[in-house]
TrEMBL record:
Highest taxon listed in the record's lineage: Eukaryota
Name of this chain's protein: Mitochondrial cardiolipin hydrolase
Family, per entry: Belongs to the phospholipase D family. MitoPLD/Zucchini subfamily.
GO CC annotations, alphabetized: mitochondrion
Transmembrane segments: none
Entry annotated with the keyword Lipid metabolism: yes
Biological process (GO), any one: lipid catabolic process
Source organism (scientific name): Danaus plexippus plexippus
Record carries keyword Hydrolase: yes
């Protein structure tokens, strides 16, 4: 083999090696890209975000406005309040707060017409979150109210306000301490009635107790309706301040009619 042929052979070999390395890197790149964009990974990101909501102090203000402005202000004692004024982002943020419920969701709402929020409530119930809803009696059956749809699910408790005055509240309590206590009492009563639960006690003891989740309240001018979120100027305050959560729980309990004697006695 002459020198010229050798040079051609070496050049060809080098080209093949370089090309194979480039192809390998491209394959690795696209493979990693797909892994990073897998639905389960995206879901993990959302779950981590939700976990942060459950375990932190919340002082948030959601403003449904025509202006797309987001900024943070500091209020005493050294707490940040996020002002958020993008409608699309606010809808996502509102639902994210609702989805963060781990144990209980108590809703006191004049009107619920948003099918997206209704779907999230149903999914919470399917995850064994105890859901109670109080709505105004006049608005509960007015189309496009979602109340009749929610009533179809046995794990969602719905009551219409029996008060003579208008029930115009717009708030919800997520993982409130009194509501969680009520859920535990219900669970204990159910276990007493269930003979099979006696044989499963050793499993209960072996389970790792979940960290307590801090309850919070969302309250403001916003009805859970598409009209309000898309077209109106509305505001929602979100806070985990203990005193405020307790006051809203007290108000909810004054409207909720408990019809289970064993539960009433335990509470």
């Amino acid at each position: 083999m002459d020198w010229k042929s050798a040079k051609i052979l070496l050049a060809s070999t080098a080209t093949v090696v370089v090309a194979s390395q480039v192809v390998k890197k491209l394959c690795n790149y696209y493979s990693n890209s797909r892994k990073n964009t897998r639905p389960e990974d995206a879901s993990d990101d959302v779950n981590n975000d939700v976990l942060n909501i459950r375990n932190r102090e919340i002082n948030d203000v959601i403003l449904f406005s025509d202006d797309v402005v987001r900024h943070t202000i500091r209020v005493p004692p050294n707490k940040d309040v996020t002002i958020c004024e993008s409608r699309e982002l606010n809808c996502f943020k509102l639902i994210k707060y609702i989805k963060s419920a781990r144990e209980t969701l108590d809703v006191c709402m004049y009107l619920i017409t948003s099918s997206e929020i209704a779907e999230q409530i149903i999914r919470l119930g399917q995850r064994h979150v105890l859901v109670r809803i109080v709505v105004d009696s006049d608005m509960s059956n007015t189309p496009p109210s979602q109340i009749n749809k929610l009533k179809e699910y046995s794990f969602i408790q719905v009551q219409t306000s029996k008060k003579s005055i208008l029930m115009h509240h717009k708030f919800c309590i997520i993982d409130g301490p009194k509501a969680i206590k009520r859920k535990n009492v219900l669970k204990a009563c159910a276990e007493k009635l269930n003979i099979h639960a006696q044989f499963a006690k050793y499993n209960v003891k072996s389970q790792i107790k979940a960290k307590p989740c801090k309850g919070f309240v969302m309250s403001g001018s916003l009805n859970w309706s598409t009209q309000a979120m898309v077209s109106n100027h509305e505001s929602v305050i979100v806070t985990s301040h203990t005193n405020i959560v307790n006051k809203f729980e007290k108000e909810f309990e004054s409207l909720w009619i408990e019809d289970e004697p064993a539960l009433l006695a335990a509470l």
